[in-house]
Inverse folding.
């Protein structure tokens, strides 16, 4: 049997007294988690040791007032993506940006995500745990770094690392878009188990405010279906044994379209007791991955979590409105004893800052935007090989090429509005058929359109800065970050009227609303194409007028940072009443260290 090493882990500083004590007194412990509890050994010792660590921290409090344990809440965000280390889209952005904003408000914050690659800034803690995944005992290891006031924990195991060649990019979920790794259930089961161990076994001393393990009184924030087993394991493996009895779980839905539906017979892989089967049970009319009866991870996550939150108030309403927008979980969401809360996302104002953006040649703010934009547009045109002309309005699009994002509707619309005085630059990766469609546009309209089927962060910044308008023609959009980034760069959104786009873009003030689209994904609805063409026409009519300048000003005057959303998250999580939880402080958006300590992938 392998062992947990309850080793202290101190990164970038001297080893503290309590960590020495920890090393000497705790030594090695052996622990195996199964739902039968047979192998959960030495729990009492583990608790005893953790108490010793806490006591030791308190002694320190007396002699060194720098350690202020117990302020705010202990938060553990768990996610398959964590930007900038791993990101295929907005999930990575949110887990990159919200935790530092919570930390800046005085909370102790950890994120737990897989180590998909050999991140150069994350160190081996040498702490290992053994967990039962499928029918095998697996030893996993924790890597760590402390960035922007947050303990970033990376779960190290070949099940994550061996899948990825080079940088993670889009290889997180499967070998290509639309194709999942066969062992995704085992991978994300392991992530959930690791996340339940991390706050207990890692003795982190990252900064002067907190030391020792996070302990039991934590709030887990699970994100999307990959982490939906977390409340299930919490309730069946830990709480019956007196561990995490106070802990609570908030499940955040970033996208109900991805639910983790698998064959019903796979339930045994999850190592959960039969009593939970009904929470997972799901029947749909699809044949993928098998016909008929299935398990649905997201469904179980919704039922077993203490609260469910999503990324905008309007999407929260859409989720319960019916099977179309709730993707057949609307009834479950209506049946839980609390309403789904909606908190609009913020954006990372450090990565997306027009005054300091390392990917653009001309920096600007609200006072200089009208001078800088034409230069940035010319730079973008030159970069993608379009005719350089600062007077021609340019429309951008950035997004995953899935039905959700409506790139197919956009392509159909481009054919109709490209005759106007306009250029279009489209950036995205995803389904091959959509990639081909956008690439074909530049063959058809070489002087007017570019379609780049790549995941290219510098180009995303160049488009956001250089375009006049950003088209967001989503069939559904839980929140959307593209329009937030665009507005901060004085680029006016032209967006579908769905989800967070309704909450964040004001018609005629900060953008143009197209109306809602059909959510039927199999085909492009000609009415939706007409709606885009008409709205693009309306937007182009305003181009270069005083109203256009006013809209740019309105866009750039907004505070789109995580500061406001983080306060709302705080209120929501405090309402869970976890022992020792306290309101935070009025912090800066990002912890002070962020400026010199920004993570790189
Ligand atoms: N080809 C490419 N090259 C470079 N960068 C690219 C890119 N394609 C996408 N990106 C980047 O990925 C992010 C996408 O953000 P979205 O909010 O559109 O997310 P997404 O739909 O993936 O996430 C889901 O989760 C988020 C977070 O909650 C919700 O906002 C959203 O509505 C929901 O669908 C942006 O930072 C964008 O710049
Ligand atoms: O940050 C971007 C999005 O990342 C997540 O979505 C991924 C999803 O959770 C994965 O399951 C997978 O989705 C594929 C799906 O499993 C498969 O059956 C097929 O339908 O194709 C899908 C796309 O490949 O990949 C998604 C990312 O592409 C996260 O859950 C979302 O909220 C984020 O928007």
């Amino acid at each position: 049997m392998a062992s947990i090493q309850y080793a202290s882990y101190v990164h970038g500083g001297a080893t503290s007294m309590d960590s020495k004590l920890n090393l000497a007194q705790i030594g090695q412990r052996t622990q195996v988690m199964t739902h039968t509890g047979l192998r959960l050994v030495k729990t009492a010792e583990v608790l005893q040791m953790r108490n010793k660590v806490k006591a030791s921290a308190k002694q320190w409090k007396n002699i060194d007032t720098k350690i202020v344990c117990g302020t705010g809440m202990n938060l553990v965000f768990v996610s398959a993506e964590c930007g900038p280390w791993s990101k295929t889209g907005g999930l990575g952005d949110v887990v990159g940006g919200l935790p530092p904003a919570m930390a800046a408000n005085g909370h102790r914050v950890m994120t737990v995500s897989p180590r998909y690659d050999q991140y150069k800034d994350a160190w081996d803690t040498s702490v290992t745990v053994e967990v039962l995944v499928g029918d095998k005992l697996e030893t996993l290891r924790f890597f760590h770094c402390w960035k922007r006031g947050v303990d970033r924990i990376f779960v190290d195991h070949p099940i994550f690392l061996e899948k990825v060649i080079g940088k993670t990019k889009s290889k997180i979920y499967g070998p290509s878009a639309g194709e999942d790794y066969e062992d995704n259930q085992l991978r994300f089961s392991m992530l959930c188990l690791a996340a339940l161990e991390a706050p207990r076994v890692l003795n982190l001393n990252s900064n002067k405010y907190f030391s020792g393990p996070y302990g039991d009184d934590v709030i887990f924030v699970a994100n999307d279906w990959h982490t939906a087993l977390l409340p299930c394991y919490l309730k069946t493996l830990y709480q019956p044994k007196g561990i995490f009895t106070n802990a609570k779980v908030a499940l955040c839905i970033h996208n109900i379209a991805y639910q983790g539906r698998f064959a019903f017979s796979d339930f045994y892989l999850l190592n959960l007791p039969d009593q939970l089967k009904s929470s997972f049970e799901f029947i749909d009319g699809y044949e993928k991955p098998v016909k008929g009866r299935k398990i649905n991870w997201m469904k179980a996550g919704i039922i077993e979590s203490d609260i469910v939150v999503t990324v905008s108030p309007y999407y929260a309403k859409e989720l319960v409105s019916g099977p179309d927008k709730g993707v057949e979980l609307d009834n479950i969401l209506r049946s839980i004893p609390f309403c789904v809360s909606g908190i609009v996302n913020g954006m990372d104002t450090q990565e997306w800052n027009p005054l300091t953006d390392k990917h653009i040649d001309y920096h600007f703010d609200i006072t200089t935007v009208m001078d800088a934009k034409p230069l940035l547009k010319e730079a973008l045109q030159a970069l993608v090989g379009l005719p350089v002309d600062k007077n021609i309005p340019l429309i951008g699009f950035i997004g995953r090429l899935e039905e959700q994002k409506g790139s197919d509707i956009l392509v159909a619309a481009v054919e109709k509005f490209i005759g106007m005085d306009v250029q279009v630059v489209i950036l995205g990766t995803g389904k091959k058929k959509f990639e081909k469609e956008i690439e074909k546009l530049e063959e058809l309209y070489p002087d007017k359109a570019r379609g780049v089927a790549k995941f290219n962060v510098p180009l995303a910044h160049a488009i956001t800065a250089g375009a006049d308008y950003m088209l967001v023609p989503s069939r559904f959009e839980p929140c959307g970050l593209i329009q937030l980034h665009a507005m901060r760069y004085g680029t006016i959104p032209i967006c579908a009227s769905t989800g967070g786009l309704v909450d964040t873009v004001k018609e005629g003030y900060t953008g143009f609303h197209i109306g809602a689209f059909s959510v039927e994904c199999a085909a492009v609805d000609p009415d939706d194409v007409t709606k885009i063409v008409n709205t693009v026409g309306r937007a182009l009519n305003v181009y270069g007028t005083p109203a256009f300048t006013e809209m740019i000003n309105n866009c750039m005057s907004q505070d789109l940072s995580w500061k406001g959303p983080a306060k709302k998250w705080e209120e929501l999580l405090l309402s869970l009443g976890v022992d020792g939880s306290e309101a935070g402080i009025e912090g800066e958006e990002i912890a002070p260290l962020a400026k010199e300590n920004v993570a790189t992938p």
Notes: Confidence is low (pLDDT under 50) at residues 1-70, 166-170, 591-601.
